[in-house]
Amino acid sequence: MKSLLNNLSLCSTYLINLSVLSNARGSSFVLL
C-alpha cells in the first residue's frame, strides 16, 4: 500500500512538472 501511494505521488509530480514545462514553453514561444 505504501509503495502504491509513493507511485501515485511520483506520477502526480511528474505530471505537474510536464504541465509546468509545457506552460513555460508556451509563454516563451509567445514572447518570441
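The record above closes out task 2.4. Task 2.5 opens with a second protein, given below.
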Amino acid sequence: MASPRVLTITFKLRVPPGLPANVRVKRIDTAVASFIAAVRSLAPSVFPWAKSIDVDYTWSYQWLRGNETVLLMPTAENTGDEQTAAAERAMIGVPDAEE
C-alpha cells in the first residue's frame, strides 16, 4: 500500500498588539479567499504532485498559547520491538508489567 504524503506549510499573520484597527469578518473572509487563490495558482508549478489542498483558518485573540511535546510510554509498537521498549522503560525508571 502506498504511504500517504502531506506537505504542511503554516503561516500566521499577526496584527501587532495595540494597533488601533478593527479587523472585520468580511476583510478576513476576503484575505482567506485571496490566499487560497494564490496557493491554488502556484501549486501546479511549484508542487505538481499535489491533488488537493486542505485549508484551515481561524481568527482569534491569542491571550495564551502553549506548545509542548509529551513523550508516551515506550511500547513495542512505537519503538519497533518489545526488547527496545523494555530497555527504554528501564532507562526512564518504569517497571515492566510483570514486576
